[in-house]
């Protein structure tokens, strides 16, 4: 699985500054936008928030996966943020979230990208992978957590 | 016990697959056989065959949307949960499925 195709080193943030859900969504979207992956930042944000309203993507186990499939996205891409202290993301299990994957998918997207996303989603269900992500300090360690 | 499942969520790019992984892991930890079909943005994957459906004692629907081809499961014992519940507490759902599968 080619995770580096979807998650570039420039979109990994090891020390998130945010302290609540809305802030962290903004912080991650800024990273994505600065990297040139969005056609319309505001529209993408609206889509992400609409998805959160439907069902919180704070899925517990310290993970949040805000995401939207929308025409405001130029290219399928991931942004990873890590917070050692944890952020209240209104998780299903009430725990703080430490690992944040912001997922952006264009309205029309190819199956290769969706395959990678489903692969990552499945991987995140394993404690060992989550522990490795949390303790990673380099981009290479992040990739290795998924590829080993 | 032979179990089958169907996972689906509105966007179909993340929750569906997390629920699949969570259910598979929990079922196997309890010594069950399980196959989980996903209905996501890539369409139907890991599709359940008529034979697999017939052999299963119980079907788990972990869904946030309608199940495609739900009529395939007519007459089966069913456990239906929100897709998020399957991610959050898969063991609980497997236990419910065990009870249903045993006709309790």
UniProtKB/TrEMBL annotation, chain A:
Keywords: Phosphoprotein, Phosphotransferase system, Sugar transport, Transferase, Transport
Compartment(s) where it occurs, according to its Swiss-Prot or TrEMBL record: Cytoplasm
Tagged with keyword Transferase: yes
GO cellular component, one term: cytoplasm
GO biological process: phosphoenolpyruvate-dependent sugar phosphotransferase system
NCBIfam families on file: fruA (TIGR00848)
Protein name: PTS system D-fructose-specific IIA component (F1P-forming), Frc family
Protein's organism: Pelosinus propionicus DSM 13327
TrEMBL record, chain B:
GO BP: phosphoenolpyruvate-dependent sugar phosphotransferase system
Phosphoprotein in keyword set: yes
One term under GO cellular component: plasma membrane
Domain PTS EIIB type-2: 1-99
GO molecular function terms noted in the UniProt entry: kinase activity; protein-N(PI)-phosphohistidine-fructose phosphotransferase system transporter activity; protein-phosphocysteine-sugar phosphotransferase activity
CDD domains per UniProt: PTS_IIB_fructose (cd05569)
Keywords per UniProt: Kinase, Phosphoprotein, Phosphotransferase system, Sugar transport, Transferase, Transport
PANTHER family per record: FRUCTOSE-LIKE PERMEASE (PTHR30505), FRUCTOSE-LIKE PTS SYSTEM EIIBC COMPONENT-RELATED (PTHR30505:SF0)
UniProt protein name: PTS system IIB component, Fru family
Gene source species: Pelosinus propionicus DSM 13327
Organism lineage string: Bacteria, Bacillati, Bacillota, Negativicutes, Selenomonadales
């Amino acid at each position: 699985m080619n995770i580096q195709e979807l998650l570039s080193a420039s979109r990994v943030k090891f020390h998130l500054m945010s302290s609540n859900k809305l802030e962290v969504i903004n912080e991650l979207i800024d990273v994505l936008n600065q990297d040139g992956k969005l056609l319309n930042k505001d529209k993408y944000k609206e889509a992400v928030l609409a998805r959160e309203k439907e069902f919180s993507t704070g899925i517990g186990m310290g993970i949040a996966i805000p995401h939207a499939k929308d025409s405001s996205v130029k290219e399928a891409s991931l942004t990873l943020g890590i917070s050692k202290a944890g952020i209240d993301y209104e998780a299903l299990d009430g725990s703080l979230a430490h690992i944040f994957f912001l997922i952006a998918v264009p309205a029309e997207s190819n199956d290769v990208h969706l395959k990678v996303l489903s692969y990552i989603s499945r991987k995140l269900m394993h404690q060992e992978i989550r522990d490795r992500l949390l303790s990673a300090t380099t981009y290479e360690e992040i990739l290795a957590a998924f590829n080993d | 016990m032979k179990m089958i499942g169907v996972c689906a969520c509105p966007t179909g790019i993340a929750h569906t697959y997390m629920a699949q992984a969570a259910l598979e892991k929990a079922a196997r930890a309890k010594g069950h056989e399980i196959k989980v079909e996903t209905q996501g943005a890539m369409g139907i994957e890991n599709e359940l065959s008529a034979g697999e459906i017939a052999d299963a004692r119980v079907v788990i629907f972990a869904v946030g949307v309608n199940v495609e081809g739900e009529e395939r499961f007519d007459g089966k014992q069913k456990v239906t949960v929100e897709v998020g519940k399957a991610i959050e507490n898969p063991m609980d759902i497997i236990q419910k499925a065990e009870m249903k599968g045993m006709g309790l």
